[in-house]
Design goal:
Number of strands: 23
Largest sheet: 5 strands, parallel
Strand content: 25-35%
Strand order of the largest sheet: 5-4-3-9-22
CATH topology of the largest domain: FAD/NAD(P)-binding domain
Number of helices: 11
CATH class of the largest domain: Alpha Beta
CATH architecture of the largest domain: 3-Layer(bba) Sandwich
Radius of gyration: 24 Å
CATH superfamily of the largest domain: FAD/NAD(P)-binding domain
């Protein structure tokens, strides 16, 4: 009977979206410039790199400057900048002639994929992390066993001296829609482009409900009106009106990396007040240019008398039922306290995402977590007997500010995590020490 040790790594990254991609760059810089090397691997459940693939809509642009790419704010001389991507792609002068700081979302995804392609040797695609278990020596936890499952059902195991989790958010399905969530006529924006609605309805004039009052709802509404010109769209949301996002320069300073220090230093109550004060930068708001397009569309309908888009503010959905003829929604008009029913061929949920502070696959080590809060360097606070570092990216809005789920702080956050990992690497383990218990094949 032979023995097979699980491979050991200084860092295992869970997820390989923009956050851990920025971390891969920072770790690479650390190895080249500071001669501190961390053997790393990243595990990504998607079969290949794709960033918000369900919403790579024609004509949709980024809402932040291309200078807030994976590395420019930390090192503008890096070969992984957006500008170098343009140069290598032969489009630098052409992009300059566009006279914009805001590339299309499709192009920015291509930039991210270009960078990811340069780190293929440290990424395993098509694997889902199912559990992270403690590896003990005496009374201490000295490492973590990361258990994954491939798309083909194969189980794999790796030993991690440290863990960095960046799994993004899960689509938020409001409770009223959970009973019909499995119906192919009901889709979340995260899967919009892969859904049946974008393939058309065989020449029929469909009736579609878009649920939500934010950026994604507006983008889907405009895309549907272009993609299926004879569609009838109801844009349904609870607010009093579609509101513009605030991207003015002074307000935008809350997304500066140094603002994280200020936010983190505040008491919990003050942090909550700051988030409430600046919600109009990111939540249930729409880019002003999109608002203008939507309003012009509704105005032109008044001119022609042809209704294609109806906007329903102050409307709450109180029930949803799947019927052969369509998805039946029961809506409550909150102004008049009147209910009515409407039947739709498709429902698009532009209802955002949920982010768990501590993902379920960390349950086996949850007893070592103290309070579930993060240190300033995004490290979970754990008991003294727990030696691995566990860093979380993209789920610390309540402690690190509104920028935590966005792209603005990626390079600086990646550098802070890398500095933390590198500073403790030599203290954790003898490089020659093997942590794995030998297991039978």
């Amino acid at each position: 009977m032979s023995y097979h040790p699980a491979p050991e790594y200084d860092v295992v990254g869970v997820g390989f979206g923009p956050s851990n991609l920025a971390l891969a760059i920072a770790l690479d810089d650390c190895a080249r410039k500071q001669r501190v090397s961390c053997r790393s691997v990243f595990v990504e459940r998607q079969p290949s790199f794709k960033w918000h693939g369900g919403m790579l809509l024609p004509g949709s642009n980024m809402q932040i400057s291309f200078l807030k790419d994976l590395v420019s704010l930390r090192d503008p001389t890096s070969p992984f900048t957006f500008i170098n991507y343009l140069h290598k792609s032969g489009r630098l002068l052409d992009f300059t002639n566009c006279r914009t700081f805001y590339p299309s979302r499709i192009e920015f995804n291509d930039y991210l994929r270009w960078v990811a392609g340069q780190f293929e040797s440290v990424v395993e695609y098509g694997e889902t992390v199912v559990a992270v278990e403690p590896v003990s020596a005496g009374q201490s936890v000295v490492a973590l066993r990361v258990l994954t499952q491939t798309e083909g059902g194969e189980e794999r195991s790796r030993i991690a001296r440290n863990l960095v989790v960046a799994v993004g958010g899960l689509p938020h399905i409001p409770a009223v829609f959970r009973a019909v969530a499995g119906d192919p006529r009901v889709m979340h924006t995260s899967g919009y482009l892969d859904s049946p609605v974008t393939a058309g309805f065989g020449g029929c004039a469909p009736r579609v409900a878009v649920i939500g009052g934010g950026q994604s709802a507006a983008e889907v509404t405009l895309d549907l009106s272009d993609r299926i010109p004879d569609s009838n769209i109801d844009l349904i949301f609870r607010g009093h009106a579609l509101k513009p996002s605030d991207s003015s320069p002074f307000v935008n300073e809350i997304f500066n990396p140094e603002y994280t220090d200020y936010f983190y230093s505040q008491a919990d109550g003050q942090r909550e007040a700051i988030v409430r004060s600046f919600r109009n930068t990111n939540y249930a708001v729409v880019d002003p240019d999109l608002l203008d397009q939507l309003y012009r569309m509704t105005y032109q309908q008044r001119v022609t008398g042809a209704r294609r888009l109806a906007v329903h503010p102050r409307s709450e959905i109180v029930a949803a039922h799947a019927r052969p003829e369509g998805i039946v929604l029961e809506l409550l008009n909150r102004d008049e306290d009147v209910r009515h029913r409407a039947t739709y061929d498709a429902i698009v949920l532009a209802t955002g995402y949920e982010r768990s502070p501590v993902p379920a696959f960390l349950d086996p080590i949850r007893r070592y977590i103290e309070g579930g809060t993060l240190d300033r360097d995004y490290r979970l606070q754990t008991s003294p007997a727990f030696r691995p570092q566990v860093h979380l990216q993209g789920c610390a809005e309540t402690s690190h500010g509104l920028s935590d789920t966005l792209l603005s702080v990626l390079p600086i956050r990646a550098q802070e995590i890398t500095t933390s990992l590198a500073s403790t690497r030599a203290k954790q383990f003898d490089p020659e020490q093997h942590l794995v218990e030998r297991v039978y094949l």
